Amino acid sequence: MASRGLLVAFRYTWKYRKMYISTTAKAAPSAERPKVGRSQSDRWSRGRQEPGMQEQMDTFGRSFGLRSNDQRAMTMQHVVPKPRKQVLRGAGYLYRAESSFCLSMAEELFLDAAEFGNIPEVRRMLEEQPELNINCVNYMGQNALQLAVANEHFEVTKLLLRRKDLARIGDALLLAISKGYIRIVEALLGHEAFADGQRLINSPSQVDPHDDFFAYDEDGTRFSHDITPIILASQCHEYEIVHTLLMKGSRVERPHDYFCQCMTCSEHQSHDSFRHSQSRINAYKCLASPAYLSLSNEDPVMAALEMSNELENDYKKLSMQCKDFVVGLLDLCRNTEEVKAILNGDTESCPSPETLGRQNLIRLKLAIKYEVKKFVAHPNCQQQLLSIWYENLSGLRQQTTAVKILLVLGVAFGLPILSFLYWIAPSSKLGKLMRGPFLKFVAHAASFMIFLSLLILNAADRFGGTSLLPNMTTHDHPSQLFRMKTTPFTWMEILIISWVIGKIWEECKDIWSQDIREYISEPWNLLDFSILAIFMTSFIARLMAFWHAYSAQCYVDKHYTDLSNMTLPFEIQYFQLARINWMPSDPQLISEGLYAIAVVLSFSRIAYILPANESFGPLQISLGRTVKDLFKFMVIFITVFLAFMVGMFNLYSYYLGAKYNDAFTTLEESFKTLFWAIFGLSEVKSVVINIDHKFIENIGYVLYGVYNIIMVIVLLNMLIAMFNSSFQEIEDDSDVEWKFARAKLWFSYFEHGGTLSVPFNLVPSPKSVLSLLLGIRELLWDGPKGKIKGNSNDEMELNKLRQQSDLSVDASLCPTRHQSIMNRLVKRYIVKAQRDKENDEINEGELKEIKQDISSLRYELLERANQDVETVTKLITQLGEVMHVQQKEEQKNEISLIY
Ligand SMILES: [Zn+2]
Questions:
Q1: Which residues surround ligand 1, an ion (CB under 5 A)?
Q2: What is the percent of the chain with per-residue pLDDT over 90, rounded to a whole number?
Q3: Staple 66 to which of 70, 161, 383, 546, CB 3.0 to 4.6 Å?
Q4: Where does the Transient receptor ion channel domain start and stop, copy by copy (predicted)?
Q5: Considering only CA atoms, which of 3, 736, 90, 43 is closest in space to residue 375?
Q6: Structure confidence at residue 709 as a pLDDT band (50, 70, 90)
Q7: Does residue 207 carry a pLDDT above 80?
């Protein structure tokens, strides 16, 4: 024991002497001595010591069983080298200003022992030297606990944690969490500093500034000021630690909205806006981490979806993380029940009557709304959707496309009959079949196709050229005005009108059933709305034209019998004129123009049903995205175009009539010339002036040339390049995109109602008549009650929510089916995440751990060897004594024998 102590002491003395020699040698030439710590160095040089120091040294010496001489020598050696830290100003200045720069020998030894995992040494020093300052710090400002935790010395940490006056436990905890030392984290959490639980919720910025609980050294903390243990653990994906912390009551508060105006937010914002944003990001990083999502929420799917939406605008990456988490959960499903649990949410706690019989798919609806495309396009989800899509018609799924097309055609031709049958008996077997999403879709698509063919056939009489030329008039009988021939609706047009009105009724029901904002947010609805609006305007204009003509006809019928040789008043005569004489603002002309636009838009509506097909769907998605790119490009395009259009017009507007042609002389001509120049359809001579104004002409040439270079060579080619790249990009994930679009399409047919397709939905069904009668009766008999019921829709929702929360309180006592499934999935997810992590870090971490263990083991072995040596020496001395005694006895015996 003594020899070993000496050995260690010698090693240290030698080390310090060497240091001393080298530092004094270096320090000697520098004449300037730093002012900082001068008094200290003076004190040292005068050989004075602090009384506490001497005491510590004494105990240190005693503990090693040194004799006083050795001790003095050692103290001297120890004392002398210290000034080096003040003398040097160059290298190593960073850590010199530490207030606790001078460590006693014992403290040095203690810190070393903690750092290298010398368990026996630490234990001995803690037991034998109660006055040892266990919070002393090394040159880096780290205390024993921090060193032990940093090097993963579990036993040493445990030994240190027995002391109550331990400092910087918070920092040690954060360090252990960041390195993933679970056992150490648990040991640290067992310390009484965490007894009140408040420590786990506070971040370093919230604790008392004089408290060095979270301090790394005197200058600050190791981690950012707003990092709490749970935030760090979540960010490091340490599931077990997050779980432990959550069990201890640690939580993360959701940050306020970025534009929040509350007191705390504005205070933080004005104090340091960067730090405010930083703390928001840190909190969100925690909230969006799979570890926190899965362990802190009863319904992680819902939480992750909500979080992904919340982060969508500001933090794309975190939002993706949430989405990946949901997809990961879905990926781990092994049976239909689990998939249903994820897609439907907790159906047991809030059974709604309108979704009975079919899944409500609330979570999926949310995923579609928040555009979690990977989730919706996931095979597990698609499989579920497919089975609902072919509800009652599962045999059709395996059929070839030809059979499906035949079915579609059959439904299209039999649509009136089918609709009539459904109208009579909605609850029959056929009615149930028709209510299935697939047949509903087919019926709607067929109805739309019929509408399109009506639009085509409406112009059938003019396919080969109209028989009524613009300069001709005609009438059936002499007293008929010409316009009475052109304005009335044909029977084909009346069919189209009925379709449009049916469609409008459908849209009205749509708006009624869902929120108006939701309706507007869907681009298809906007397209529908504009088509219908244009059609209606066109028909109304036509009706006005007819009305004017009809009133004129009435006037004529009253006053005239034959119009052939009559001079009519101008208002009446106008309705006799041929088309070439109509006013440009004639309602009929407006109606015809709008109708043409509406027809074009109606055909674009086909794109809505194309995603149902697997070969057209992806193509259409790509096309749509490319058009989106085109619109972005158009902004630049139009800017350049406008610049040259106005510039050229300014240059040539004074030369109207004095040019080779009319190009650029008016704004309209300028537009036409430049527009067709893009396609190479404008002449170069457009810039030539007939008179001798060379300067203007040359400027014209230059500008026109530059325009052509920019437009045709640069911009057009860039557009093509952009198309290429974005098409490639879309092509890569067009499958996901298409499946998402298809799911959206399918989903719109999953909801009940709207079985009868346009225009048959205009005929009130017995069911709706009955409910209308009931509604009227309610309104008449108990009017006030009905009113309350009308605006109590929100209240009902609230009640439902309250019931739900009550249920969830009960549920925490005994988990519902949904909760147990969720728990199962989350467990599976965590196991998978941990397995992945282990695979990742098997090389570095493990190797380091082994190294640390070997280091500890060495010290333990040394200790044991020492003990063994001691016992052996003891035994030998005992043996020697025994031998000695025996020898003496033998001698005595011999002597007695001799005598
Ligand atoms: Zn706020």
A1: 256, 260, 262, 265
A2: 15
A3: 70
A4: 260-326
A5: 736
A6: very high
A7: no
CB 343 within 8 A of CB 366: no
Residue 315 per-residue DSSP state? -
Could you tell me the distance, in angstroms and rounded to a whole number, from the CA of residue 583 to the centre of ligand 1?
63
Contacts of residue 493, Cβ cutoff 8 Å, sequence gap at least 6? 458
CB count, 10 Å around CB of 51? Answer: 7
DSSP string computed for 417-445:
HHHHHHHH-TTSHHHHHHHSHHHHHHHHH
Closest by CA position to 318, among listed 281, 291, 292, 373: 281
Ligand 1 center from residue 275 Cα (angstroms): 15
CA of 264 to the centre of ligand 1 (A): 6
- Structure token pair of residue 43: 């004190």
Give the helix, strand, coil percentages of the chain, each rounded to 5.
70, 0, 30
Compute, in angstroms, the gap from residue 205 CA to the centroid of ligand 1. Answer: 18
Q: How far is the CA of 603 from the centre of ligand 1 (A)?
A: 50
Q: Residue 689: pLDDT above 80?
A: yes
pTM: predicted TM-score of the whole model, two decimal places = 0.70
Q: Token match 């599976």: residue?
A: 828
- Name the token pair of 804: 């739900």
664: how many CB neighbours lie within 10 A of its CB? 29
Which of the given ranges, 175-184, 593-602, 833-842, has the highest pLDDT on average? Answer: 593-602
pLDDT digits (tens, 9 = 90+) for 255-299: 888 888 888 888 888 888 888 888 888 899 999 999 999 888 888
Nearest of 528, 657, 540, 518 to residue 594 by alpha carbon: 540
Cα–Cα distance list, 325 to 155, 299, 830, 897 (Å): 37, 13, 11, 97
C-alpha gyration radius of the chain: 45
Residue 504 CA to residue 361 CA, distance in Å, equals 28
CA of 867 to the centre of ligand 1 (A): 64
CA-closest candidate to residue 149, choices 162, 133, 168: 168
Q: Inform me whether the pLDDT recorded for 5 exceeds 70.
A: no
Cα–Cα distance for residue pair 155/811, rounded to 1 Å: 42
The Å distance, Cα 212 to ligand 1 centre, comes to 29
Residue 658's identity, in one-letter code, is A
Alpha carbon of 301 to ligand 1 centroid (Å): 26
Among 532, 502, 375, smallest CA distance to 761 is for: 502
Mean per-residue pLDDT of the chain: 79
**Which ranges constitute the DSSP H helices of 560-615?**
570-573, 587-604
Query: How remote is the CA of residue 271 from the centroid of ligand 1, in Å?
Result: 14
Structure tokens at 551: 């009133």
Q: How far away, in angstroms, is 477 Cα from ligand 1 center?
A: 80
What's the gap in Å between 311 CA and the centre of ligand 1?
Answer: 17
Given a cut of 50, whether residue 387 has pLDDT beyond it is: yes
Distance 277 CA to ligand 1 centre (A): 12
CA dihedral 798, 800, 806, 807 (to 10 degrees): -150
Tens-place pLDDT, residues 564-585: 666 777 888 888 888 888 888 9
Chain position carrying tokens 């009335």: 488
With cut-offs at 50, 70 and 90, classify the pLDDT of residue 24: very low
Question: For 128-143, b where at least 16 C-beta lie within 10 A, e where not — what string?
Answer: ebeebbbbbbbeebbb
Give 319 Cα–ligand 1 centroid separation in angstroms.
Answer: 21
**Sequential DSSP letters for 807-875:** HHHHHHHS--HHHHHHHHHHHHHHHHHHHHHHHHTTTHHHHHHHHHHHHHHHHHHHHHHHHHHHHHHHH
CA of 257 to the centre of ligand 1 (A): 7
d(CA 309, CA 323): 9
